[in-house]
Amino acid sequence: MSSTTSKFEKLLNGSKEYGNVNHQPDSSKEIQINTPEKTMPFSDQIGNYQRNKGIPSKSYKDSKIYIVGSGIAGMAAAYYFIRDGHIPGENIIFLDQLHVDGGSLDGAGNTTDGYIIRGGREMDMTYENLWDIFQDIPALELPEPYSVLDEYRLVNDNDPNYSKARLIHNKGQIKDFSKFGLEKKDQLAIVKLLLKKKEDLDDITIEGYFSKSFLESNFWFFWRTMFAFENWHSLLECKLYMHRFLHAIDGMKDLSCLVFPKYNQYDTFVTPLRKFLQSKGVQIDLNTLVKDLDIHSDINGKVVEAIIIEKDGKEERIPVGKENYVIATTGSMTEDTFYGDNKTAPAIDLDNSKSGQSAGWKLWKNLAAKSPVFGKPEKFCGNIEKSSWESATLTCKPSAFTEKVKELCVNDPYSGKTATGGIVTISDSNWLMSFTCNRQPHFPDQPDDILVIWVYALFMDKEGDYVKKTMPQCTGDEILAELAYHLGIIDQLDNIVENTIIRSSFMPYITSMFMPRAKGDRPQVVPEGCKNLGLVGQFVETNNDIVFTMESSVRTARIAVYELLNLNKQVPDINPLQYDLRHLLKAAQSLNDYEPIVGEGLLRKFLKGTYYEHLLVENAEDSQEHESFFTEQINRLKSWIGGIRD
């Protein structure tokens, strides 16, 4: 019993729950019924009651924490060790092979060399764990006591995000993107997928389940380009995404369901979080390669006894005591990135025979060689052709290109307000190319006359429509030419090239976490038997959350801290909107492009004049009557209910 809770000794000693908390409850299996034994909130019961501070059962003031990788998952772990574990910040040490913190949340450059961001983040309001952290991290530009979350809300509450050119074709013409265009059989396939058990979808691909008509629909154009799914990726992950974003499906056509930061991901999230952690005394050791963990295993479990590192060309061994903890990021979506510029294409010197040999993957492989509980990294890093794509960052002075971008923007991109409102996808591009102009400036030091625009493509094996090369074979100027062709301004290419710096990034593993997988391929956050080791990031198992989001990285960090320290606090499951009748009905209507869904006429008649009549979205078909035998029965039922009311 800790001194903190000594006044509650009698109560806690008699509790079955204290010290036996399920730190990662699963809403997909929990029966939501209140019983005397149910003392904690339901698994996805989001709200202020979940915001209690974790109370450790003992003091950890002398424990050291070693965190391998300074990406958002590692930083989040440090935050939770401090806030909920009450571990002094000076006891926490980051070990990172890179020369800069932030992991895949990068953002750097200048107007001379060009800015670069390998990727971006589309944010959702239901990221409970992410906002749980950033409600307490001091804002980048607002004064005390305001937080990053306050800043984020200030921007997005007053500058709505949406697109007026989600799809373009025919050399820069806006394509009608008002409909999903799903056939009835494909809508039914989505419903059936939502109903399927996760356990039945091991190693099944998207194209192995959905029909050709689905894969050619506008819905799939929106979905795959927004989330970077390929047809050969995991059907299980696609299902989890559909559950996670069911509440947002109707806003995916115009991207009005998204919220974006004012600046790039590094300056928005990494910079303020790093400053907060350093203010608490946290140490960040960069240029430090972690090669392996020395783990002792016996009948009592697995304990990390040492960390094997390489620094300044010398191998060293950091002892880890039993009261100390190690958090390691397994795998990396941006490792082995190859870079190009205006005059050079990325010099890709990697194939499947050499993949997964870099530091982040090697550490995971070394762990997996020790025990099956650490998963199967080769499932994710062994097929570059199916896990790679290329992005490019354009630093643009005024040109014919920026003038064309203006036409596709909601607001003038120089105004500081929402510009394209998310990606603009070129639907007739052989590369399936998309680009986005986020709020400008995208970097705090960016001059007023500069726009930073991000481009990416999904198809790495196809020649361009104008430049007869694959995107990875192209120089930056050739990528500009392909883009200019699709925008209908190829005749002004010289002007565009003269005023645009381009830095390209080919990433072999950027969608590796989407590769088809089965149970056991990814390790648990705290692998079975591990006493002082937690694994975090995009390649570990959670109950219902998805990958490729900051939220999922933060979730894994939070689970690791709560489980390792056995805190009397849970990590709530994903937001329960997937179970909300309102969102289920809205999604059904949206997938059918607001044509009447089966039973809609009857349901409208039944709900009309009641407290629940607002559940169905109004549409142009509302005035249509669909009389039938069933309508007659519903009318009789309503009369009966009316009689009861009277």
From TrEMBL:
Record has Membrane as a keyword: yes
Keyword match Lyase: yes
Keywords of the record: Lyase, Membrane, Transmembrane, Transmembrane helix
Gene this protein is translated from: ohyA
Membrane-spanning ranges: 65-82
InterPro entries xrefs: FAD/NAD-bd_sf, Oleate_hydratase
One Gene Ontology term of the molecular function aspect: FAD binding
A Pfam family it matches: MCRA
EC number(s) given by UniProt: 4.2.1.53
Organism per entry: Flavobacterium bizetiae
GO biological process: fatty acid metabolic process
The protein's name: Oleate hydratase
